[in-house]
Design brief:
Shape: elongated
Number of domains: 2
Low-confidence stretches: none
Largest sheet: 9 strands, mixed
CATH superfamily of the largest domain: Bira Bifunctional Protein, Domain 2
Mean pLDDT: 92
Strand order of the largest sheet: 1-5-6-12-11-10-7-9-8
Distance between the termini: 48 Å
Radius of gyration: 28 Å
Strand content: 15-25%
Structural class: alpha+beta
Helix content: 40-55%
CATH topology of the largest domain: BirA Bifunctional Protein, domain 2
CATH architecture of the largest domain: 2-Layer Sandwich
């Protein structure tokens, strides 16, 4: 018997429904914020996807040569594909440009709780603005989605990749070494990261500053950033990064949006293309990020486009579903407008199909009994699946242009005229 490939899953009806619901809310929010949906290929050239991702992700991409001998890979994230699109087909579009995408991604990770080799994300990217209000929009949008889904006690972890990057740049650390250090910091391996900086020949002053940064985090965002500014006062461009993050957070506070956040000075994300504010979202008891993102101002020019500032976020649909389940928040499609149409005998089958079409047109969720079961067995099956109403089509009632309408919740039934059927169901479901 065949099984799914390791790390891949079959999503059964309830699982698929919950995944699609998170996707549906994400798509609704994208419209409210003015993001246009795009669809990019699952398969891209390896060079594109490998250009500015992390070494860890490069090693875990699904790669192969196609029949033309070209090295290709299945996308491990969305941003590279969207940057390619912005640098080419969308290069003349007016700015700002807001783009939304949703779909499956692939990484050859070790399967574990909340981590699969095929996973789904909803992706939001804002191109054309380097101002703090663009960063604030991405944070507020993320908050909006999680709030609309009913998620509780989630918290934003926020930092700025420019703080660490500019310190290391001023210390003349190569980009390759910087990427290695950020990878270690991303995994919370701070001592190992300090060892690498020491081996790279940074000053003792830098070692002391980095040690302080890795230990500094606080729920009082402006207080912790004031401390960080003092730590990095001898690194001018790092101070600018701190000030930029201050402006973003102040803007959110002044807007009246309540954002539960913790600022971590020693926070990094694995992807190499980040240049500014970065963030992730967590809930208590689930040690995996539900989503994350940040600013990347240099990626478009890497793919041959003109310099375009950008900021974005990827929401982990699978992980959000896990978080909702952990908090026992279960979305079930409302079935108060669901109807099953059952014909008593073969002579009534065509009428049952006709009525089902009429009811669907009126906005009801309608299924027709197709198993040829007895009325008793058919009603038992409908009850098991929580269908709200049953329309029983019999020859005797049809002679009078009527059918039997049964309310499954109230366990009552009555005979109604065909012309009034939709109105009668609608009245009962309100």
């Amino acid at each position: 018997m065949f099984k799914t490939v390791r790390g891949m899953r079959d999503l059964l009806p309830k699982e698929a429904e919950r995944m699609r619901y998170v996707e549906q809310v994400s798509r609704k929010i994208s419209k409210f914020y003015g993001y246009d949906e795009i669809i990019t290929p699952v398969l891209e050239s390896y060079e594109l996807l490998a250009a500015k991702t992390s070494e860890e992700i490069r090693e875990r991409m699904y790669t192969f040569k196609d029949l033309g001998g070209r090295k290709v890979a299945m996308r491990p994230e969305f941003t590279a594909s969207i940057a390619r699109l912005v640098a080419s087909k969308l290069k003349n579009e007016p700015r700002p440009m807001r783009l939304f995408s949703v779909g499956s991604l692939y990484r050859y990770d070790e399967p574990q709780y909340g981590r699969f080799r095929e996973f789904w994300q909803a992706n939001f990217e804002l191109f054309g603005s380097n101002r703090p209000e663009a960063d604030a929009e991405i944070l507020i949008l993320t908050n909006n989605i999680l709030k609309d889904l009913g998620l509780k006690d989630y918290r934003f972890k926020i930092g700025h990749t420019g703080i660490l990057r500019e310190i290391l740049t001023q210390e003349n650390i190569s980009e390759e070494k910087q990427n290695k250090i950020r990878q270690l910091v991303d995994k919370k391996l701070w001592l190992e990261a300090l060892d690498v900086t020491r081996e790279a020949g940074v000053s003792q002053k830098c070692q002391d500053v980095l040690t302080r940064l890795f230990e500094t985090k606080d729920e009082n965002a402006l207080r912790v950033l004031s401390q960080v500014r003092e730590f990095v006062q001898n690194y001018e461009t790092a101070v600018e990064a701190v000030d930029n993050l201050c402006k973003i957070i102040e803007l959110i506070k002044e807007s009246g949006v309540q954002l539960d956040m913790i600022v971590e000075a020693g926070f990094a994300r694995g992807l190499e293309y980040y240049t500014g504010m970065i963030f992730e979202v967590y809930i208590p008891g689930l040690d995996i990020a539900l989503g994350g993102g940040g600013r990347y101002d240099k990626l478009i020019e890497l793919f041959g486009g003109e310099p375009i500032p950008a900021v974005g976020v990827a929401q982990g649909i699978d992980r959000i579903v896990l978080a909702l389940s952990k908090q026992q928040i279960f979305y079930e499609y409302k079935k108060d407008r669901s109807v099953a149409v059952i014909s008593i005998d073969d002579k009534c089958r065509a009428k049952a199909l006709e009525l089902s079409a009429v009811l669907r047109k009126a906005g009801f969720l309608v299924e027709v009994a197709v198993m040829g079961r007895s009325i008793r067995s058919a009603l038992s099956d409908v009850n098991r699946r929580n269908v709200a109403y049953v329309v029983i089509v019999g020859p005797k009632e049809l002679e009078e242009n009527k059918v039997v309408l049964r309310n499954m919740k109230q366990e009552t039934q009555r005979t109604v005229y065909l012309i009034d059927l939709a109105k009668e169901i609608l009245t009962g479901s309100n």
